[in-house]
Write a structure and sequence with these properties.
This protein has eleven helices and eleven strands. By secondary structure, the chain is of the alpha/beta class. Residues 1-6 have low confidence and may be disordered.
């Protein structure tokens, strides 16, 4: 994906990070130009303090070949990608890193280390993924979830998917994020399980099982995004036309939606994994350096919010 000039939404996230201390970040196996450059540039912008975990000689060779300055980055030698993932997770467990960032290794390798029963970073929440999308034709940053981890989520899984995204949106400064729960239609029918899940999630929010947000669904995509489309169908909704979060029915729908927005609507895409002990910056090999930096900015804000919560609980 080619870098884009952006519409200013990501820049507002970067502006919110000014004055915050860089967050120590374990970068797992940054053994490719964009992965290494993204981590280093995020460090230069003061978002993170990168700890580059991987084959030291290979990282140095890539940096030299592409003229990437490693003078302000710490390097932790690890012989291969599996070892880099395990060591990166260990740095978080040891308190030496507050964020985890995917380099050029496979997502399964990194998440395998994250979910390991004895040595990983699991919490009581399900591990979920969010795309933060700067869509030129939409008026604010849009969160799409889950389009990368949970393949066919159950209703209970969707509760965590939803709450993780809401908590992130609150971290980004929203008082009551608006969540559109997507399906193919806006009416509840037993023939489409996604519509039943949507109705249940809305009732769960009313009963306090999902908090700090306004939910509505089922909503077809047009009704979710367009006030005019919702009006024409007689849908009265606080969410329609103004959602902060799109909760998709399953991974396939979410993945298709996110990639359509990226490749047809020219959206920039940042990716995070939530539900672990720390936020995980999960970018694609096709992502631009700008998208990687935006992911770092969001993760840094989440890490500082986590610090504040820990201090209040003591």
């Amino acid at each position: 994906m080619t870098p884009k000039s952006g519409t200013g939404k990501y820049e507002k996230l970067l502006a919110r990070c000014k004055g915050l201390a860089p967050v120590p970040t374990a970068v797992a196996h940054p053994c490719e130009e964009t992965a290494l450059a993204g981590a280093v540039e995020a460090g230069e912008k003061g978002l993170i303090a990168p700890i580059l975990v991987g084959p030291a000689a290979k990282i140095a060779e890539i940096a030299k070949r592409h003229r990437i300055d490693l003078s302000h980055a710490e390097i932790v030698d690890a012989p291969h990608s599996h070892a880099a993932a395990a060591r990166s997770v260990a740095l978080v467990r040891e308190g030496k890193a507050e964020l985890l960032m995917k380099g050029s290794l496979h997502t399964d390798e990194l998440l395998g280390a994250v979910v390991a029963r004895e040595t990983g970073l699991r919490t009581e929440r399900r591990i979920t993924h969010v795309f933060l999308m700067d869509v030129p034709t939409y008026h604010k940053v849009l969160i799409v979830t889950d389009a990368a981890i949970n393949i066919a989520p159950t209703l209970e899984d969707k509760v965590d998917i939803c709450q993780n995204a809401i908590d992130l949106a609150v971290t980004l400064g929203l008082d009551r994020p608006k969540v559109a729960i997507l399906a193919a239609v806006e009416t509840v029918t037993s023939k489409m399980p996604a519509t039943l899940d949507a109705a249940a999630l809305c009732k769960m929010a009313e009963r306090g099982q999902i908090t700090c947000a306004v939910l509505d669904g089922p909503l077809a995509f047009d009704n979710a995004i367009s006030k005019e489309a919702a009006r024409m169908k007689g849908i009265r909704s606080e969410v329609a036309g103004d959602p902060d979060i799109l909760l998709v029915p399953d991974l396939e729908a979410g993945n298709i939606l996110a990639k359509q927005l990226a490749f047809l609507a020219n959206a920039d895409t940042a990716g995070l994994v939530l539900g672990a002990r720390v936020p995980i910056i999960l970018t694609s090999r096709a992502d631009s350096v700008r998208a990687r930096i935006a992911s770092c900015a969001v993760a840094a804000l989440a890490a500082h919010a986590r610090r504040s919560q820990l201090q209040k609980s003591r």
